[in-house]
User: What shape does this take?
Amino acid sequence: MRLIITEKNDAAKKIAGILAKGGVKEESYLKVPYYLFTDAEDQANACVGLKGHVVQVDFPPEFSEWRKVEPKALIDAPLVKTETAKSVVRTVKKLAADATSLVIATDYDREGELIGLEALNLAVEENQKLARGVRRARFSALTAGDINRAFSELDQLSEPLAMAGEARQDIDLIWGATLTRFVSLATGRLGSQFLSIGRVQTPTLVLVAEREKERRAFVSEPYWVVKIELDSGGQRFNALHKEERFTDEARASAVFEKLVTPGRVTAVKQTSRKVPRPAPFNTTSFTSAATSLGFGAAMAMRIAEDLYMAGHISYPRTDNTVYPSSLDLRESLEILAQGEFKREAGQLLAQQALHPSRGDKRTTDHPPIYPTGSPRKGELSDRDWRIYELVARRFMATLADDAVMESNRVDLAVGGEPFVSRGSRVVHAGWFEYYPYSRQKDLELPLLNKDDLVELVDKQLEAKETQPPSRYGQGTLIELMEKHNLGTKATRHAIIQNLYDRGYVHGNPVEPTEMGMKMAEAMQEFAPRIASPEMTAELEKDMDLISVRDLTKEQVVTISRDLLRQSYGSLAQNREQVAAKIYEGITDDRILGVCPKCGKNKLRVIRSKTTKKRFVGCEGYPECDQTYPLPQRGDIIGLDEVCPQCGSPKIKILGGRRPWILCLDPYCPTKDEYRKKQAARAAQSAAEAEAGGGAGTKPAAKKPAAKKSTAKTGATKSSAAKKPAARKAATTRRTAKAAAEPVGAEVAARTAATDDD
Assistant: This one.
């Protein structure tokens, strides 16, 4: 029997269905499914899917207690591997015991190669004979064509590529756990409120913080613009003074006063230009395009991976922007023609030859992202369809003609002052027809000739201010990370998401919180190499050298430990200053604006010493007793804006699936609808309880009263007396757990492990 191991169960099921000569028999062991089938060569096969990494790297148990082990000790601590999905591991070993050969069919990238090597080692532990017969299937799409080709051209597992992935795993654990533990202990933020530092996460945060510094340092300067509206034969159009921006208000006003009708055309110029087709999608350009449609980068990648597993698009983790010659473009169009894009794909198929556009990045692992299936719109959720449509339309755009734009410029004299009017229109849609996201709106001007007279309809003198540089959108930030070689195509979206999860940034465009700003400043001041993209980029290059056998995993991990040791020394020497700076940011985030009651003191987040619940209170207490209730979960960010309805400050709650904004005043008119719904639910529950046996009844609540009436008063008192002790013990256990939170399995998974491939 041949054993085939894939990265996920969906892939195992699909591959089995493609390779099977007849039917596929689904079995399970320890609730883990696997698939038995006979292939075209009458060979018996078993195909099983993993759950990604089923083995993880961690520190030995003696290093797990945060308060008892100095963070510095983690730099040179030994690393061990532990099984994370024991049922999957046992299933792999069970199937391996009866196997005569092994095929690794995990995703073909650095991380997939490592997962494949981990699976191989598990199988060989059970059956050493499999080490001699292991082969590798490499594919870029879960389609019949790609899978059949991959299994007819089985290759060797690349151990150097896997070792590069393992080096990344080790480095990110060592860096993430060491620095995360240090900064969390220094600031007293333990348990679920721990703070994180990562070798990729931190320089990415610095990029965001530096842009925010530019914005805060920016000094707006006033300027004035003079605009006019003109009429030519009943067709109106706009023009702007040739000077565009006036820095002198008196000069702008003088020009404005001179404007009288009619105006005269002094020159007309018409030009035509080609708008080149876009390059094929790689991961970076795809996520950038998806974010412009309103998707978060992490969400876009999750949807893309789901579409890949469903066989609708190719593998979404790729740097390539050049279609390989082996990719049958016409076949891909024929697949599209079977679905919602029948007309568009048919137009492209009518061309005698297909000449796709080319980007500037060419790799040999995976092709650019392209559609591999033709699902109907109703078969997918709205968001899944929007991502699929984006990929399909981009693919068609790369096979279409360049677009042609016609630009018009009309120079005019009005009141002796020079004005310019500009227009443009699409004269040949080309790729715009297939990819409307980039199409510009036509702005047509009337047909004008030199010396034509035009009527002045309206004139405007507008006062404006120069604007600071804009914040980075998620797509722009990913492009910037790629430029600085921060992370990889597979991890950048996850790294950005981690910044959100840790409360360092919020919103889109990406805005740092005060805690995020101070974290970046602390690292820049006391550990500049950690904050610098150069160090991280250098380590990424070293890991790439492992894959081509120029360096060993051990050498690169040793280099990284030495770099970390140097940075940690600086942090440790300035522990108090680091903690003070970060805590300053945490404190600033708790300031939520000026108190509307007293008008002079600030509102801030306060935690009750008795109830331990948080609320908003005025710093002027007891003179001012203004308070507001708060949700008890999620990080809180002040927005420096007030509710237009009641004038109370507005806040943003970070946590859950998405952030949400609310007014602090619980009686604000904006919450009337919510209160009505709550009242309706309460009334319904009361009615159901009155009727008896309804959804709102809770008969179990009567049980404690029944117990009180028993004769065992002594026992009852004894039990009651023990409750405070039990609660105290439980509290002690929770405190101990927070102080001894595991470094690898939990913390590293939520922090440094997002720096993976």
In short: The radius of gyration is 32 Å. The first strand starts at residue 2 and ends at 6. Residues 694-757 have pLDDT under 50 and may be disordered. The chain has five domains: 2-50+85-157, 167-217+470-584, 222-277+403-465, 283-397, 594-672.
